[in-house]
Every structure is written in C-alpha cells, then in structure tokens.
Amino acid sequence: MPNPHMRIGAPAAKPKNVKKSLRQLLRYMRSSLPVIIISFVFAIASVVLTINIPNLTGEATDALMSGVIQKSVYKGIENKLGEESLGFECSSMEELANIVALGCGKTKGEVTVKDLMSLAGEDSTTASSVPEKYAESVMNMKLLYEPSLDIDAIVKVLIITLVLMGVSGVLSYVQTFLLAGVAQKISYRLRRDIDLKISKLPLKYYDTTASGEVLSYLTNDVDNISTSLNQSLAQLVTSVTTLVGVAVMMFSISWILTLIALVIMPLSFALVMLVVKFSQKYFVGQQKTLGEVNADIEEMYGAHTVVQLFNAQDDTKKEFGKLNARLATATRKSQFLSGLMQPCMQFIGNLSYVAVSVVGGVLVAGGSLGVGNIQAFIQYVRQFNQPVAQFGSIMNTLQLTIASAERVFGFIYAEEEAETGVGEPENAKGVVDFKNVKFGYSPDKIIVKDFSSHIEAGSKVAIVGPTGAGKTTMVKLLMRFYDLNGGAICLDGKDVAEYSRDGMRKEFGMVLQDTWLYSGTIRDNIRYGKLDATDEEVERAAKIACADHFIRTLEGGYDFVINEEADNISQGQKQLLTIARAVIADPKVLILDEATSSVDTRTELLIQKAMNRLMEGRTSFVIAHRLSTIKDADKILVMVGGDIVEQGTHDELMKIDDGFYRKLYNAQFA
Question: Are 249 and 381 in contact (CB under 8 A)?
Fold first, then answer.
C-alpha cells in the first residue's frame, strides 16, 4: 500500500541549482572530452562547407544571367544596325565590327562593346540598361561573335557544390556517430552509478522514496540526458557556427541587407528567454509527475491481487487518473509553450525574409547587386533564421535535460550510509551484546528506548511481544540496516560499528517473513546465499530446509523457472526456498523473522527439526508469534513498547505471576 512518507502529489519546483547540475554533468563528460572536441571540429567543418554552397549557386546564377544579358545586348545591337542611334550605317555585325576596328585601330575580331560605345560617343562604363553587376562582362563582349552561355563554368560550380555537399554529409555522419558513442557511454555510466548507489543508500531513503521514482531515474531521466547529448549538443555547436559563418557571408554580399536581417536577433532571443522562463517549471513538473505515475503503476501492478480482492479497482483508477491528469497538464503546458516558439520564430524570420526580398529587389534594380547575390543572400537568411529557431528547441531540450540531470545527480550524490568501520570478524563465535540500545526511525520518535541483553554463543534466543513492540526493528539494528541513536551492539565483545557492513554481514544469515525471490531457476535462487556453491551444496541445503521434496515435484526440478512476480509457487514454498538460501550461506548468527509463518503445521515441525540441526553451534534469533515454536529457546526476550520487560527461559517466564509472557502464552492456548 502507499507509503505514508512518500510525497506523491507534492508540487514541482524549479531546479535548485542549475549551475551545479551542469557542472556535475560536465564532470561525467570529462573522460570523453577528446572525442567531443573531435566531433565538434567535424561539425564545424561540415557547417563551413555547407555555408559556401549558396555562394557557389549564386555564382552559377550570375554566370547564367551574364550569358543571358550578353545575348540580349548582342541581339539589341543587331536590331539597331542601320539606325542612326548607333551613329553607323551598316547591315551586319561583321560590317559594324570592321567599322569599329578601323576607328579603334584593332582587328575585327578584337573589338568589344566597350570600343563600340566609345566610338559612338556613349558612356563606356555602362551599357544602356545593363545592371552594373553584369556591365563589365557585357563591355568585354566581342562584337564579331555571338555570345553563348558559359556551360563549362556552370557545370564546374555545380560539381564543386556536389563535392562540398558530399564531404559535408560525411563529416556530419562521423560527428553524429562520435557523439552517439559519447552519449551512450555517459548513459551507461549514469545507469551503472545509479545501480551501484541503490545498495549504498540507507533504508530510510527507500522509506521516503517510491521504487517507481528510482526506476524513472534509470529510464526516463537518463534517456533525456542521452538524447540531449546526442542531438542538442551537436545542434548547439552547428547553430553557433552557422550563425557566425552565415553572418560573415551575408556581410560580404551586402551590409545593408545584413543589418536588416540582424534586426530579428534581439527580438528572437527575447522570445526564447520569455518562453524558457515560463516553460521551465512545467518541464520540471513533467519529469517529477512522470516518476510519480511510474511509482503508482509499479505499486498497483505488484499488488493487483490485493486490489481485486478488496474491490479497490475504482479507487486505484481514480488515484491514477489524478496523477495522469497532472502529468497531462504539465506536459501539455510545457509542450504548448515550447511549441509556440517555432511558429513565432518562423513569423519573425518571414518578416526578415520579406524585408530582405524587397530591399534586395531595389538594389538589383539599381545595379549594385546581381540576381545571384540576392539568391544566395535569401538562402543565407533562411540558414540564419534556422539556428535562431533551433535555439528555442535546444533551450527546451536543455531545460528538460537540466531537470533530469538534477534528479539523477540528486540520487547519485544522495547521502550514503556512513561506513564507520573496516574489515570483518575473524573466527567469529557469535556472542552478542545489546548495551542500552536506543533507536528511532526519526530522532523525535524513539521506538527502542533502553534495550540491553547478553547472548551467549550458540544460544537460541526468541524475541516475542505484541505487534509494534520493536522485535523486527531489533534484528534490523543487529544487521546494521539502521544506525543507533544511542548505545551499542557488540559481536564477540566488539562494537559491530567497528566492522565494515559487508564484512560484518558475512557472519549473518536472515530469513524474513516477507519472502524475496527473483526471476530465475530455483537452483539460482538458493545459490544466491553463496554464489560459488555447487549443485550438491544447493540440493543439500534444500533437503535441510525441507524443500527438496516439493522442488522435485515441479517441472524441471531445480531448474524450474520462477516468474517475475514469483507467483507460480505457493507462499509456503517461497518461504522454504528463502530458508534454504540462509542454510547454504552457513552463517555464524542466524536470524529468523517469522520464518515459519507461511507453512502448514506438518511442514513447520519438519522445519523446526531442520532448524534445530542448523542452529547447533550458531547463535540464533527467532521472532515468532507462535509461542509453541520457541518453547525450547535458551532465552526468551519479551518486548513491549521497544523495551525488554521480561527475559528468561519458557519455564522461568511461565512461573511469573501476572507476567506478560504468561498472559500471551495462555491467550494463544486458551
């Protein structure tokens, strides 16, 4: 059921420290810095090559226009032969060339339109209505030969353009390939560190964090970071390079048109920052709520039988509907605001495009620019507007990335269990001392107030008491799942806090009333207690735990595969397997927390016999509500409200008039 400490439904906040999250992300990217730099160089080279393409196509257009205008001028001169406007009387271009040649002292094949205009008394710097851009090529045109289009020059330009496009595409592919490798490497490291972190966090962290939240870190948040590194990082570099390169090319064509195009920059960036300001909180809320939805789905899926048993389907649907509605609202608002950016940027870009087209047309008509220049400039305007618009998309993605990075690094850098000791017990005997133990799950709510007891090696100790008395809490403290608020727990006279947790826990075996099995064979689940155990050791442990018989009745026997929910075997069978797992670990101290609560009476008796054999020479702690199972314990600790109120053997405790244990025992067998 939902954990009361979980803050599901808490309002989303903006990232607490954007700079810190970015620094942490850059730290993860440090080892891949050489590859990132190389990919950036390739991206810049690809953009530089691409930037030259409009200029080249403009040159091809100018070459084509120059040829067309030359032919037009040539035909115009032919049509005017014999008219007084030329000042010469002749009937063909050959006669005209002879006349001009005689007047200029040149051969017939050398004379140009410039010679004709000079001889005719016209201004030699222009040719009628020919635009200034093409005037020189017209003036140098030979009169004797009819001009033709310079196909070779046009083809050459087109070939160079295709080569540039091909090389640019190859560079872009290599850059994408390199960044994809970097992104996956960083994603791998993040997932690995999250996985390693899971076992290092104290249990109190999981008391306040839903498992779906952690799953969301591993999936959604890491995927967001990977996507951003793979796409947005390269886009950011190419956008900046494109802006700078295109601006240089635009200035080289016309500074007037460039200034007109640059007018959109402040307006565009102002729009980007405005959208970012309003959309950031919704992106953070989207990721947070997505984690809550995952947590709810995981929790309800794991408890679907309980939900159906109590007919709580409608309630769970309503709860999920609320979370889903919040996710939809946050996503809709964030996507709406980010979606506004593209059409707004296009509108601003189109205003610039229209202004450039109008002014450019005036400049072409005035003869200061050629058609090819305008064609190239308009393409540059499009290229210039594209990265400006991309900045909006990149900023949206970076917002999501920062939100995801903060969540991921908040988990990775969460406070770990403080390791207070080193090493492990050597030749442990199993003497356990509880010395004035004080503990509470929160400092202001102390559960165990003053727990003291001495346990001899090889003793069987039973801990009994009403629900909530602190029985399970004591064994969790013994395993150092939680640190004490006061006092000490000693193993063989040495405080367990002086050992490392891993080293100390090697001497303990634990079977909880809540069984845990993973998807895999029965053999592998038992071997989990000792990973290098042989098949013979696995089967021997199963026999001691009275599990061998039922295992052999299953299809495949020890190779029977337990499914993900472990619901293809009974609860009692699962308990037997967890006991077998503890058996194979061969611990010095054995902890059984209601280990026989899910088995039938006959199996319970068999397990008791097996446990008696197993517990010989080992210190054992047994928590049981069935007092009949612990009558033979060497010591019984009776706990009420976190403190020991009685301790002794069964017979000793039964002799206490009006004793709590006696009342508890008589209540069970009344």
Answer: no
Find, among 482, 260, 246, the residue nearest to 387 by Cα.
246
In whole angstroms, what is the distance from residue 421 CA to residue 500 CA?
5
Element (H, E) at 461: strand 460-464
pLDDT digits 0-9 by tens, 67-92 = 888 888 888 777 777 665 666 677 77
DSSP state of 545: T
Residue the block writes with tokens 């602190």? 470
Q: Is the dihedral of CA 214, 220, 221, 226 positive or negative?
A: positive
**Region label for 520, one of left (φ > 0), alpha (ψ between -120 and 50) or beta (otherwise):** left
Per-residue pLDDT reduced to its tens digit, 576-625: 888 888 888 888 888 887 766 656 677 667 667 667 766 777 888 888 77
Whether the CA torsion 197, 199, 200, 205 is positive or negative: it is positive
Three-class SS of residue 446? Answer: coil
CA distances from 435 to 56, 200, 489, 493, 508 (A): 87, 27, 6, 11, 19
Query: What tokens appear for 282 in the block?
Result: 């919704």
Token pair for 431:
């003497």
Query: Are the beta carbons of 431 and 453 closer than 8 angstroms?
Result: no
Chain centre distance of CA 334 = 18
> Position 632: which residue type?
D
- 72 Cβ contact partners less than 8 Å away, ≥ 6 residues apart: none
CA distances to 8, 272, 416 from 213, in Å: 10, 31, 18
Are 417 and 499 spatial neighbours (Cβ–Cβ below 8 Å)?
Answer: no
Cβ atoms of 21 and 410 closer than 8 Å:
no
Q: Is 513 exposed, middle or buried (0-12, 13-18, 19+ CB in 10 A)?
A: middle
Q: b/e for 244-267, b at 16 or more Cβ within 10 A?
A: ebbbebbeebbeebbebbeebeee
- With CA atoms as reference, report the closest residue to 242 among 517, 472, 50, 498: 50
What angle, rounded to 10 degrees, do the helices at 255-262 and 264-302 form?
40
Helix extents (H) in 479-516? 501-505
